[in-house]
Amino acid sequence: MNFELTEEHKYIRDTARDFAENEIAPSSVHRDISAEFPAEIVKKLGELGFMGMMVSPDWGGAGMDTLSYVIAMEEISKVDASVGVIMSVNNSLVCYGIEKWGTDAQKEKYLRPLAMGQKLGAFCLSEPEAGSDATQQRTVAELKGDHYVLNGMKNWITNGTKADFYLIQAMTDKSKGYKGISTFIVEQTFPGFEVGKKEDKLGIRSSDTCSIGLNNCIVPKENILGEEGLGFKIAMETLNGGRIGIAAQALGIAQASLEASVKYSKERKAFNSPISNLQAIQFKLADMAVNTESARLLIFRAALKKDANEKFVKEAAQAKLFASKVAVNNALEAIQVHGGYGYVREYLVERYLRDAKITEIYEGTSEIQKIVIAREILK
Predict the structure, then answer these.
(1) First vs last Cα of the chain: how many Å apart?
(2) Is the pLDDT of residue 233 over 80?
(3) Which of 75, 127, 360, 363 is catalytic?
(4) Residue that finishes a domain, picked among 232, 249, 268
């Protein structure tokens, strides 16, 4: 087993790191305060090939592996987790779903511009009454001639106000339960599509989140993804891969917290000596480092299994569960190491904590990850 990155993976890491430090970092504090969407940064990410990293070059993607993706996600999220989640949703949830289940016509019309970063995607599963239990979909889709009519509401939609294309889960046959759920590709310009108010969030503030309303929304028949009744399967398989991306986002926050703490501990003096000489601080840094490296290995294992076309449900859930916990704990410890300075915006670590918490919630809460893991090991 070789733990060394290939030259290609190192190049991707260095490219992502350079872009994050030079293009993302200068505006990260301003965008966090103002909740401003990083439109120009997302456009440049597309030009780098980072918005469709795993999509085949046949459809405008970069054709990279999952390991490349998580390496880039860590570097981007280390500087700004808001940009990381925008990138994650487009790659893991939208591009993946269309490439795997879409027709050639759908790939040409929707996947190609998404993968090239010319358009932005969003994934719509959660509803006011269907969060962790995604089987309880209330949004309905009725076939009428050459089109479907969708009615309902979706909550917590990342990229919601800025996306061009949305993958939306809706019930096409209530009598079949979750097997009656279907997935549709919906454009923001379709009649009856309504973008709700942007949420004022605790963290990842420059990533926009909103509700989506469907009021007799007209969707062409050819925009169903896969076939009727395949929607729940599409959603669950897509989320399995998405968890790897969110784990990598959490890893970036954890690594940033560690690096900030190491730097500050060497600069800050107490009792006429850098606080890095204090055993209490050293123990914190040691725990942060061990947990961060452990999370990275779990994520890499899940990515490698996915790339090998092996089952990775348990591995992805384990990676997300652990990495998200590490992100929160490292951010808390970073604030403690910084003392009073950790509580103010100037030193960034308070943002790490605000950004970290959501990684324990979206794309499956930590409690759901435990259920998934338990089911897998009890088979």
Answers:
(1) 27
(2) yes
(3) 363
(4) 232
